[in-house]
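Batch manifest, entry 17 of 40.
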Amino acid sequence: MNDELASELEAAPWRKASYSGANGGDCIEVAPLSGDRIGIRDTERPDLAPWVVRGGVFRAFVAGAKDGEFDF
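Output type: structure tokens
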């Protein structure tokens, strides 16, 4: 990861779902990044490097989740 992206991720406005557990776990956090990218990280392991995906990839995933495509 380059220094510019690392700095952007450190300062990013991370958000998590209201469905997350009371202790802040059991969820992922997302943050909008420059260049239509999205950072994704595990709330229980913010020390690990986040995934960074294109905005279109994230939007397709969210649409699929809303449609129940990932229900087990």
